[in-house]
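S1.2 Input.
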Amino acid sequence: MPESRRAIWAQLEELYWVSTLALGAVAFMLELALGVRPLTLLGGLYLAVTLALFLGPRWIVPHLLYGLFSTLLLLWWVPELPLAGEPREFAAAILVLATLALGLYGGPLWAAAGAGSVALFFPELGLHQRIAFLGVYALSAYLGVRIRGWLAELALVQARLDWIAHHDPLTGLGNRRALEAAFAEGGWRFLSLWDLDNLKRINDQEGHAAGDAELRKLAAAFRAEARESDRFFRTGGDEFVGLHREARPPTGLVERVRRRFPRVSVGLAPVAGSLEAAIAEADRAMYRDKAGRRPSG
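S1.3 Output.
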């Protein structure tokens, strides 16, 4: 499994275990506050199993099966819940569940608001019930903060993977995939094809580090001289492609880049059809340019 995918899986697995552990603790404290012995025993057992698996070998499949078994037992005991015929207590339960959801979304602020709401609107709750509710809200807020943190990390990983998938790591320019996506946007008037002269000789005589440095210098020249509407991509070993929206051929851009990096051959072609057709025409123009720039004799 690639390292990036393994990192995402590890984050999702961590999210699963912390979520089930926190929600199991929430359920256990609510059952304890309600005073329903079978539910309390089941919740405590589920919490203990989850904690043991969290601290030890994290076997997800057995835990999912145990969670399904616990859920079936819970449904068996649902008629014993003392909230069934008490509208005010039922309203309190709804408030608790709503605040839990807000706690997961908003973190400590919503958790504090929920705890204060229960204390304000339901003063008849006993001390142990208030403590249980406060614990529920604290866990909800903690879990909400952790979930948002994981989601932020996953977003960064995804952004990094997307960058890697669409960029050349040596020069930082877009790669062939990025070129195809940009070309599909439309609106391009000209395509330029650039070929670094004598890269093979540089690699053979001075080493690949020297060749890589030349490629980076050419990419730097593109960045320094490109107009706002120009886009550049590295599509091969020594081959670069530019896309241009200006109505006139980018000959001025070619001259400015060559002043910074003279060892490059360039071919220009109008964009009138497919990307492959424009590259083929620019490739022919580039070889004519390369032949014309070779010293005679």
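S1.4 Remarks. The longest strand covers residues 190-196.
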